[in-house]
């Protein structure tokens, strides 16, 4: 277990470049299996989830190396279709490998995926989609076995615009015979990024970013060099950092339009928001104001991955805010942790009623999941005293060197590999 100590009372100021996108990188890494040549990726974030994905690719026989800033993945040597249980269990996105391994080897064997504890995360839409593409799927003893002859293009109607299912079906369809049309596809920017990567490799994909994605199957792709898009959730997290600490932060190298729903909320809270072509500056003015109602929705709605960070901010606001989580059924575990810091909130099913307070105090809290953990860091920076965050390694699943980023903005996070309580007792 890794613990972080967050020093309260910070005012975040300065400019930070944003990391590469976690949610774009993971399916793109899975997609490298579709190409039996070398792939050069730039801006791949140095985060635990990406490292886990790379280890899984190595287990399947791929070669992974770094050349300066670039990550080189070569799947020519890949020769295994069984995903390793322990590594895949830790990484929900290992599910993307089902589509690409199946496409590459006409066979795949995977454990049920792991990931954040944010509620029941079924994979029925992934499996239904693959079945539509002619895959035979058996679920047995905690594993998913996909078999069958070659994949065939089909029309896949998603009953919900699942990000992961859209991406998995895109991957499986690239080398399938014929055309695949995904209807009610998710429209997240990371899906567009996956399409751009696939097209750079010679696959024929169009429509990403709209609810209809079409893939014309081709026999093979080819090697490519590709720059992964900036991470809109990390960018949004640091911008909330400006708002919650009364600071002034510019996030550079980002795509401002991808965080519009958050920027609108920050403006509503009373922050000054300045958008440039590839950067955003957020300057907090007086005390943050409460916002009437916010609900998470698939893109272009307010992202569920920024809900915990907004939750922390609203915990410091003047007045009462209402926040509804529509995407995941159980994504409010940060609420009870924030209460330990003096926040006032009530959860009614999927809705949080948050009554802001002008001071939070440091406490001993637990990061139950990646974004909930980031929300605790933000709250800790704005609190009085020190906050200990347990299981902070969960934050490292998606944030590249968050402690260094916060340090460059004049905040302090110290790492402790051991539990403080354990040390004191020893
Ligand atoms: C992706 C993102 C995650 C983000 C989420 C929603 C990655 C690596 N992760 O996760 O950060 O929070 O999108 O923007 O890109 N569902 C089903 N059946 C399925 C699949 C999903 O019922 O087969 C449900 C889920 O339980 C959830 C909802 O659909 O309630 C959204 O899930 P989905 O869009 O698939 O999210 P992920 O791809 O898991």
Q: Can you walk me through this structure?
A:
The protein has 426 residues and is an alpha+beta fold. 32% of the residues lie in helices and 24% in strands. It folds into 2 domains: 213 residues, Enolpyruvate transferase domain (UDP-n-acetylglucosamine1-carboxyvinyl-transferase, Chain, Alpha-beta prism), CATH 3.65.10; 206 residues, Alpha-beta prism (UDP-n-acetylglucosamine1-carboxyvinyl-transferase, Chain). It contains 14 helices and 23 strands. The strands form 6 sheets. The chain has a 4-stranded mixed beta sheet with strand order 21-22-1-23. The protein has a 4-stranded mixed beta sheet with strand order 2-14-16-15, covered by helices on one side. α1 runs parallel beside α4, α5 runs parallel beside α6 and α8 packs parallel to α10. The two termini are 17 Å apart. Uridine-diphosphate-N-acetylglucosamine binds next to α1, α5 and α6.
Cα-atom Rg, whole angstroms?
A: 22 Å
Low-confidence stretches: 422-426
Query: Any ligands, ions or cofactors bound here, and which?
Result: uridine-diphosphate-N-acetylglucosamine
CATH superfamily of the largest domain: Enolpyruvate transferase domain
* Class from helix and strand fractions: alpha+beta
Number of domains: 2
**What sort of overall outline do the alpha carbons produce when their principal axes are compared?**
elongated
Key descriptive features of the protein:
single chain, 426 residues, 4-stranded mixed beta sheet, UDP-n-acetylglucosamine1-carboxyvinyl-transferase, Chain, alpha+beta, disordered C terminus, elongated, binds uridine-diphosphate-N-acetylglucosamine
